[in-house]
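Case 192 in the screening queue. Each case pairs one protein sequence with one candidate compound; here the compound is 5-O-phosphono-beta-D-ribofuranosylamine. For every case the pipeline is the same: read the inputs, emit a complex structure as tokens, and attach any notable structural observations.

Predict complex for case 192.
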Amino acid sequence: MVKLTGLNKIKTSVFISGTGSNLKNLIIFSKTKNSPISINLIISNNTNAKGLRYASQFKIEKRIFNFKNNKVAEKNILIYLKKNKINFICLAGFMKILSKNFIQKFKGKIINIHPSLLPKYKGLNTHQKAIINNDRFAGCTVHYVSEKLDSGRIIMQKKVKISAKDNLTSLTKKVLKKEHELYPASILKIFS
Ligand code: GRF
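Case 192 output:
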């Protein structure tokens, strides 16, 4: 686990592939005086990721890497992380699986947000699975990234009740709202 030692905030990179609502939320959080992190680099595998707009909006450096060859992409990402003195990584809707080698290099310094109450529903389509199974609760988890997908140590979770009226859209919205509370709370917990 990383400890906040100096007066400076921990230089953090957020990895995204899509909308970036968690990224936006983390940027806003990072600007508060309580935040132990600053966001200095946004990384994506997807040129069309909507969330990339927050890079220009908040004047944060962004880099896009082509994952056609994962090894090359990761090698180049590591160069940028080093160049920007990044020592903490938040995955936020990043749709690529990072290699064992990459994870080792940032051991205990990569966290992810997943839209289910892990260990339930690893992988994709978590809300659909919860609805199909008539679950009473859904939720989200922030966890350390380990070599096994969605299996690293859990930092924090938040639950939401699934009501009879819920569908995929409403449940996604409900959980996302909780995600926006959970990600900053988890970061505070890690560095407290
Ligand atoms: C979130 O539901 C997150 O848990 C999952 O992907 C989604 C990303 O949403 N990993 P956004 O791009 O942050 O809006």
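Case 192 observations:
- The first strand starts at residue 10 and ends at 16.
- Residues 16, 18-22, 51, 92-93, 113-115, 140, 176, 179 surround 5-O-phosphono-beta-D-ribofuranosylamine (CB under 6 Å).
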